[in-house]
Write a structure and sequence with these properties.
The chain is mostly beta strands. It is rod-shaped. It has strands at about 5, 10-15, 25-35, 40-45, 50-55, 60-70, 80-85, 95-100, 105-110, 115-125, 130-135, 140-145, 155-160, 165-175. One of its GO terms (cellular component) is extracellular region.
Length: about 180
C-alpha cells in the first residue's frame, strides 16, 4: 500500500510495494492539494523505485497522492493516499527597528507566514517592568510604536500567534532619540 513517512511542513516521503521493475514499466505519480485540483502535478517515476520524496509543499495542507503503475506486462490498480503536511511553526527570524524618533519608532519583522493569525508587539522601557501590548493583524509585518519617552532604551518583543495556538517570540532593543531641548 502507498503510504507516507517523514512528514514535515514542506515535504514527505512516499513508500510503496515493489510492483514493477526497471524493465516492466514506470509509475505516474499525481499529487496536489485536495482543495485545489487544478494545482495537481504529475511526474514519472522509474519502475525500479519504491520510494520518493516530494518537497516544496505548502504547510498544513492535505495532499491527494495517486501512484499509477504503467506496466507493459500486468495491470495494477492505482494506489492512492492522503497526506497532510505539518503546520509551519517558524518564529519571526528578524525584528527590525527603524524610523526612530524621540517619541516613536517603527517595528517590522519577517517572515510573514500564512499560518500566523496575529502578532503581538510588547514593548517597555529598560530597566523597568511596565509593558505595553499592540495587537497586529497576521497579514501585516510592521507597526509604529508611539507615545514613548525620549532618549530611552526599549525592549521590543514580537510574538507570532499561530492559528494552531502555538506562539513564538523574538526580541530586539530600540532606543528613542533625544528630545528637542527647550
Amino acid at each position: 500500500r502507498l503510504h507516507a513517512t517523514d512528514v514535515t511542513s514542506s515535504s514527505f516521503r512516499l513508500l510503496w510495494p515493489k510492483l514493477l521493475s526497471q524493465d516492466t514499466g514506470y509509475y505516474s505519480l499525481e499529487y496536489g492539494p485536495r482543495a485545489e485540483p487544478a494545482r495537481r502535478r504529475t511526474q514519472q517515476v522509474s519502475g525500479a523505485l519504491t520510494s520518493i520524496v516530494l518537497s516544496d509543499l505548502a504547510p498544513e495542507t492535505t495532499y491527494e497522492v495517486a501512484l499509477i503503475p504503467e506496466s507493459n506486462v500486468h495491470y495494477f490498480p492505482p494506489q492512492s493516499t492522503r497526506v497532510t503536511t505539518l503546520p509551519e511553526e517558524i518564529s519571526p527570524v528578524q525584528v527590525l527597528i527603524s524610523e526612530s524618533g524621540p517619541h516613536s519608532f517603527q517595528v517590522s519583522w519577517a517572515p510573514v507566514l500564512d499560518s500566523v493569525a496575529s502578532y503581538q508587539v510588547l514593548y517597555g522601557p529598560l530597566p523597568g517592568n511596565s509593558v505595553e501590548v499592540l495587537e497586529v493583524d497576521g497579514r501585516h509585518n510592521s507597526t509604529v510604536v508611539e507615545h514613548l519617552a525620549p532618549n530611552t532604551t526599549y525592549l521590543v518583543t514580537v510574538t507570532a500567534i499561530y492559528r494552531s495556538g502555538k506562539e513564538r517570540s523574538l526580541s530586539a532593543k530600540a532606543c528613542t532619540q533625544e528630545g528637542e531641548s527647550g
